[in-house]
Amino acid sequence: MSNIELSIQNGSTILYPVVEEGIVWETARKGSPGKLTFSVLKDAGLNFQEGNAVRLKIDDQNVFYGFVFAKKRSRDNSITVTAYDQLRYLKNKDTKDYTNKTASEFLKMLATDFNLNTGMIENTVYKIAYRLEENKTLFDMIQSSLDLTLDNKKKLYVLYDDFGKLTLKDIESMKLDLLIDEETGENFDYTTSIDSNTYNKIKLSYDNEKTKKREIYIAMDSNNMNNWGTLQYFEEINETTNGKLKANTLLEMYNRKTRNLSITNAFGDVRVRAGSSLVVKLNLGDINIANYMIVESVKHTFKQDEHLMNLTLRGGEFIA
């Protein structure tokens, strides 16, 4: 039986409300803040507001730290609360430009500008010569810097909030000693497709202002073009991008059938967040898998005597 501790801080007052069954904690690997949803019973002593801090601990482990963003009341004196972690503030829009910074340095710059708390931020090494981000969300700005790092260094980093601190980690360091198989996962959905996120021809274009010529970089797989027809990805790049390297990298990433795998009602583990990896061992019919897969998104549901999680996974040919 889990020991669930949920508190709300209103000013200097820390409240421990009566929480109804079914606390839900959700994270996604990119572009979304962590989200906590729960319902509390209203009583005379319960007074909290939007912006108040929310903490969730399970068996004395720090799970979620965020802020109340929405309250929904009902006639039965129940209040449904939606709270988001610090990544919610990355939805702010702005215009920024920077020169000769790594993605991690840029992230620290934004954190300072918007008064966000930071924790462990790994050095992403790759220096971005110049970048202008105009009228973009902070999420999109940061993702662009991480995408450029992936294109040039083939290193994937995960940004998340670790109990109130922005954290950036190499995805390779987020592996867990956890197994999902027929016994630990109640059910799965598995689909294969070439309808999205599959490209067998990459075409990149760069307008060279010095030579007044358009440079084209192409990478393709003739065999898969014969099998599937031409599925082309096109992008205009700037002078700071290594066109040949990026074309080859994109072809390596997307020249494959996409396989989507989701697991429902697996035994819960609070260490599992989007970006972490775990071992999956399943017979999916056309293939058997027994390898690490990345958690693209996860939804934890906590009850007094039960903790289950739904997972969307990627890895190898699996793309969420």
Can you offer a commentary on this structure?
The chain has helices at 103-113, 138-153, 222-228, 243-254, and strands at residues 4-10, 13-15, 23-28, 35-41, 53-58, 61-73, 78-85, 93-101, 118-121, 128-137, 157-161, 166-170, 175-180, 185-193, 201-208, 213-220, 232-236, 258-267, 277-283, 288-303, 306-314. It folds into four domains: 4-88, Roll (Phage tail proteins - horseshoe like beta roll fold); 92-171, Phage tail protein beta-alpha-beta fold; 181-193 and 258-314, Bacteriophage T4, Gp27, baseplate hub, domain 3 (Elongation Factor Tu (Ef-tu), domain 3, Beta Barrel); 201-254, no CATH class. With 320 residues, the chain is mostly beta strands. A hairpin with a 4-residue loop joins strand 6 and strand 7. The protein is globular and about 75 Å long.
> Quick one: CATH class of the largest domain?
Mainly Beta
Q: Tell me the domain tally.
A: 4
User: What's the Cα radius of gyration?
Assistant: 22 Å
Largest sheet: 13 strands, mixed
Number of strands: 21
The CATH H-level homologous superfamily of the largest domain: Baseplate protein-like domain - beta roll fold
Distance between the first and last residues' Cα: 32 Å
- Residue fraction in strands: over 45%
